[in-house]
Structure formats: C-alpha cells, structure tokens
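Look over what follows to help learners.
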Amino acid sequence: MTEQTPKGDRIAKVLARAGVASRRGAEGIIAAGRVSVNGKQIDSPALNVSDTDRITLDGQPLRAAEPERMWLYHKPAGLVTSDADEKGRRTIYDALPEDMPRVMSIGRLDINSEGLLLLTNDGGIKRKLELPSTGWMRRYRVRINGRPTDPALEPLRKGMTVEGERFQPMQVTLDRQQGANAWLTVGLREGKNREIRRAMESIGLVVNRLIRVSYGPFQLGDLKPGAVEEIRRKIVRDQLGIEAEDTSGTAKPKPKMPFRGRRKPR
C-alpha cells in the first residue's frame, strides 16, 4: 500500500512565500523553535501545512503571502550584502530607503564590488534565481591593473581550478586600455565567492573595480548608485514563468516575453 503525499505545502516554503526568509533561512528559524502550527511548537521543516492551519512566528500570526515583487538596486562599494555584519560594517539594509518592505538579496556582491543587485520579498524567487540550474548570465565590467593581452585571458575562457575550487568557463572580452588599467567585460553563469577576483589573481591580474551590469534579463542601465527601482510585476511574472494568479506556491510555465530592461551604460 502506497502512502499518499500530505496535502498542502512544506512549512519552510510557506514561510518563504510570506517573506520571512529564504527557504533555507526558514528551516533555521524552524529549528530554533520559533514557529508553531495550531498551537504546537515545531522544530522540523518536514511538515506540510494548508490554508486551514494556524501558523505563528515568535508568537505572532504569520502574515499572508504577499504578491511576488522584485527590485533593481545599484549597490555602492563599501556595503556588505548581509542582514548584519559581525565587524559592524554598514550593510545594504542600512542604506535602503526606509519605506522598503522586508526584502532579501538574490545572490551577493562583496563589499568592494558595486552595481546591480536584485532584491525580492519572496523566498521562492530568491532560491530559484540562485540555483546554478537557472543558468542566467551575470555580466560585469571589470577594471584591472596592467596591460593584459587577449591570449593571457584564455585560461578564464576554458575554465580553471583555483585553490581546489572549479570555476566554469567565463565569457571574457578585452574592451580597452585606459592608462595603467584595462577594462574587461566578464560573463558567468554561477557566482561563487569572489570568483572573478580570484580567477584574475590566479593569472597574475589584480581587480581594482568590479561592477555588475546585468543579471539575466535585468539591466543596471543608468540607475544611480544607491537607487532602487521596482520591476513591474508583469515583467517579473513573464521572466520567471509565474502565472498572474498562481496561489499554489508552484511556478507554472508561461511563455517568456523579451525584457530589455534599462539602457546599458556606455
């Protein structure tokens, strides 16, 4: 006899859709004993819940799932992409406008990097777009000290192993020499910790400026440093393949429409 799959959605998924945290973050909240279902504290995410269940977080009723929203944010250099920093450095959340709802970053940019950072109120979107299988290209304008030749960049295009970690092939274009520095355009489909900086260092090049200019179809364009702009919900749905009135918590296939975003910087 085959057991039937319990109805409803996993509790961590429900917390993520309510904007509490990413699904992984929600699992940590559950493990800490902060969540109760129908008056009973739980400590495992292995639980399905439905609309009839009463869920509380820290004793307060869980707010209803909000519509999926995304924002473009031009992260300035000098900010940490995290909720809090153990060294007391300013984070992106210290710099965001006060009227912003609770948001999560999709991926990260290190403290010295700048440019496009996607924000969302939906943990499911965050998880989906961070998965390597999503395969969205991230493009960067990279300034390095020195006078590299195009053949010297070939190891980056072939893929390489740095300190035991495998980096997938990158798209690398040598754009121009500007005094003692050179500008490159670099594209990659997975963003490991400081991947571009570490890869450049492995071939003897030092990055002194790194700007993300696009993430998949979303463009930085002429968005000013520190500015935030919400992406229209129709565009979010089209690009992520989400039905307009999807209340099941599962993304459903939908024909994608081209999104040109903002004009790229010259």
